[in-house]
Amino acid sequence: MRAMLEPGEGRPLPQGFEDIQRQELSRLFGRMADIRLIAFVPAALALAGALAVAEPARWRAAFLFAVLVPLAGLFAAETLRFRRSGLSRGAVTVNLLAAVVGQVALAFATGALESPFTYTFVPLAVMIGLFASPGAGRALVATQVAAVWALAGLELSRRFPGLNLALFGGGPRAGHVDAHLLASATVLSLVLALASRAGRAVRGVFDGMLREALRAREESLRAHAERAEELTALSAEIAHELKNPLASVKGLAALLADGAAPGKPAERLAVLRREVDRMQGVLEEFLNFSRPLVPLAERAVDLALLAEDVAALHEGLARQRGVRIEVRGGQAEARCDERKVKQILINLLQNALEASPAGAAIELWVLPPADGAVSLHVLDRGPGLDPALSGRAFEPGITSKARGSGLGLTIARALARQHGGEVELAPREGGGCAAVLRLPAPAPAAREALA
Questions:
Q1: Is residue 10 part of a domain?
Q2: pTM (2 decimals)?
Q3: Are 21 and 210 in contact (CB under 8 A)?
Q4: In this predicted model, what pLDDT tens digit does every residue of 29-64 receive, in sequence order?
Q5: Which stretches are transmembrane (predicted)?
Q6: By C-alpha distance, which of 383, 393, 388, 386 is closest to 431?
Q7: Does residue 6 form part of some domain?
Q8: Same domain, yes or no, for 345 and 436?
Q9: 338-355 and 303-313 are packed helices; what angle lies between their axes, rounded to 10 degrees?
Q10: Per-residue pLDDT tens for 114-164?
Q11: Which CATH number goes with the domain that contains 307?
Q12: What total of structural domains would you count in the chain?
């Protein structure tokens, strides 16, 4: 798809420009439609009713009712359609054209060019400049100008004796000097053209401000992204450099532990080795987070077998904590990168193990395809989501663990989204937390191939 270019500049429009412009025009159109339905339609129908009572010329009220009642119905239908489905394509042009027709009919029935309602042509011309596209705007303003001269010609012909309102003296004309009428038509035509241009200029100023604001936002985001990339690369380099000294410290601690006397020296060396292991784990998580996501190596994977494999890996740790791991559900297959999905499940299961009290059970439910996705639920009976962190659980560095890095869930969600899936956390009924991994279900043909 070819990118939209800025008028006269040849540069592509900033991302999101058309969407924001459409939203703002839709909002303004909605206000216009509401005001028109609440104020203009009742006032016009009331005017027609008053003329039916006060005017001796019966054609006038009949004409107004014949024009205004269908227009009122159109305006009501357009307002309801806007509230139901938003601003549709072409709705602006249709509504502005209907407004032009209504104004011309109202002016014709109340004195033609000398009607007091001809002044309403000017604000409508401004609205045409604001809302309509350039081509449609020129056509609508040309229609207004043509109507002005048609009304002037009707008055000049003096062939319509009841054209003027009885309130203004009746007859074909309110005035008597043809030159004045021609001058009024000329001036009004120029004012309509200028009003439309003014509306178009206001629209241009708005579009220009929106473009500049979006371009400034893009520049700010680009600079931020570049800075973040630099900091991430620097941090990853520092973390990588720290791994070697830590490995040396761990090796030396192991050598010292072999010859250490029982008691406090051996205990202190054991603490040292555990802390080194923890630091290495934090650094490894950070390096996983800072690395760009490598391309997926997808193949057919049985999620039930993968869940059983992950459960078996944690059997020893679960026994130490006095927790059971149970794999439930049926067979569910997905086309995914097995190594990365396994990493997601390991992260979710380790979180569940750390949260579960002794004697509890962690359930891994593998569910068949539904709504275009296969899902695997990791259910625990821990304290559940911290309300203070529930909305930020996937942000880097956010954790409820005393020794957590706050990167595990961030990495898990990034890997899931790389597959087109998602990781979600929710409170579990009866207490605890439900971590849900969703992956796109294979197409029916792909499922047959997997079978």
A1: no
A2: 0.50
A3: yes
A4: 777 777 777 877 787 778 777 776 777 777 887 888
A5: 35-53, 59-80, 92-110
A6: 383
A7: no
A8: yes
A9: 50
A10: 888 888 899 889 988 888 888 888 999 999 999 999 988 888 888 877 788
A11: 3.30.565.10
A12: 3
